[in-house]
Amino acid sequence: MKRGRKPTIDAADITRAAIAIADAEGLAAVSMARVAAEMGNATMALYRHVKSKDELLALMWDSAMEQPPPLPDGDWRDQLGFWAKAVLTAIRRRPWFLQIPISGPPAGPKNLAWLDSALSALEGLPLEPGEKIGVVMGLSTFVQGEARLNFTLAKGFEEDPARFNHQYGQMLREVVDPRRMPSLAKVVDAGVFDMDDVLDVEDIGADFDFGLHLFLEGVAAHIRGRS
User: Quick one: average pLDDT of 62-84?
Assistant: First the structure.
């Protein structure tokens, strides 16, 4: 009895299998051999469609993001604020996304769709095309930086929760010399770090909203200057 031919695969199939592995076990578990095994194919069969693991990671980087949701009614600040929170939500669903090295500007269809969505919020504003790209890239950097920080802190909290409670504020009082670090000492003395849980969800959300507000206010000030 002849064995049946293995089903035809393509780059999209390979990418979906790799994403499933990353979702279940993290990005470190993804390799060409592991993906091939999950798909029931020989590793070399994958290389006919995806040239290298770096190419696979690039495909995952684009495919991991969902299509951007429609922007709400409102002015450009409302729309960019909504866009930023949508990006953050998408990254939180797949935090391994942040571990993929970025080797170039967005080129995949989903990342380009997100770029177009953000740029559409800036239509009609007195900004040069290059300035609009600068605004979107700056906002994207802020969102991904916040997501990366939150993800890193969350991992640290899981490993050692005691480092993230009120003892942190007390520790800073012991090591921060007001003569050498006067500005930081004032913040420590004000009790900013005296909290029961540094990773409180509401605190993280408030920090993100405040940073987003500052970014958008900076853009608004630039626009007023151009006007």
Answer: 94
* Measured distance CA(51)–CA(157) in Å, rounded: 38
Q: Sign of the C-alpha dihedral, residues 95, 96, 99, 104?
A: negative
For 32, 96, 105, 194, the CA distances from 61, given in Å and listed in that order, are: 16, 10, 12, 38
User: What is residue 57's predicted lDDT score, i.e. its pLDDT?
Assistant: 94
Span 99-119, pLDDT tens digits: 998 777 777 899 999 999 999
pTM of the model: 0.80
Task: Report CA torsion sign: 180, 182, 188, 211.
Answer: negative
